[in-house]
Amino acid sequence: MCPHCPDEASNLTDARTASITAAVTAAGPVGDDTDDTWTARVGDLAARITVMCQDGSDVAAIVDGIGVAKRFTATVLAVTREQSSTRALVRLRTAPSQFHADGLEDARSERTDRPSGLAMARRLTMLVGHRVLLWVEVAVMNGGAGKVRVIRHVEDLGVDAAA
Q1: pLDDT tens digits for 77-114?
Q2: What is the C-alpha to C-alpha distance for residues 112 and 94, in angstroms, rounded to an integer?
Q3: Are the C-beta atoms of 113 and 131 separated by less than 8 Å?
Q4: Contact at 8 Å (CB) between 106 and 118?
Q5: Domain interval for residue 24
Q6: Residue 112 belongs to a domain
Q7: DSSP at 114
Q8: What are residue 79's DSSP bridge partners?
Q9: Is 118 part of a structural domain of the chain?
């Protein structure tokens, strides 16, 4: 083994240390808690953080999706619920393009039966009439049979006076 390359055991130790450190930071100071109560809170947070870091977690999917997402500005015109998937269907007005000559596009939230999807749907509903910066991932669905545009992140740019 190369002495300059980390082995699997050291990678695991590094990941463990990072999770524990993040949990201690999230738990905050011991304060009025007993050491046992504070340690239990750190343990719970460490477990949650570790789960979030695993492949397939909702949080990992968001982070991975942002990494490959297309970023663009649009105005949120409407948000409705797609009955077949429980996703929020978002109607957007963007600059006209070869694919959307009228500048109207649709994108979706993650499924709203997942906490992250429900939170995004609620946030988008509050942003109707606002100009936004979006990160949209083209995700494969139904085992590759189709694709869906999933909004991974949104930032409010303020009310669109033209909306």
Answers
A1: 999 999 888 999 999 999 998 988 999 999 999 999 98
A2: 24
A3: no
A4: no
A5: 8-53
A6: yes
A7: S
A8: 90
A9: yes
What DSSP letter does each residue of 52-96 carry, written as one string? Answer: HHSTT-HHHHHHHHHHH-EEEEEEEEEEEE-TTT-EEEEEEE---
Do residues 16 and 87 share a domain? no
**Residues 53 and 19 sit within 8 Å (Cβ to Cβ):** yes
Q: Which of 158, 110, 163 is nearest to 135 (CA)?
A: 110
Note whether 110 and 48 are same-domain residues.
no
| Side chain identity at residue 1, one-letter code | M
Is this model's pTM higher than 0.70 or not?
yes
Domains held by the chain: number = 2
Question: Is there a contact between 151 and 90 (Cβ–Cβ < 8 Å)?
Answer: yes
- If asked whether residues 12 and 46 sit together in one domain, one would say yes
Rounded Cα–Cα distance for residues 108 and 91 (Å): 9
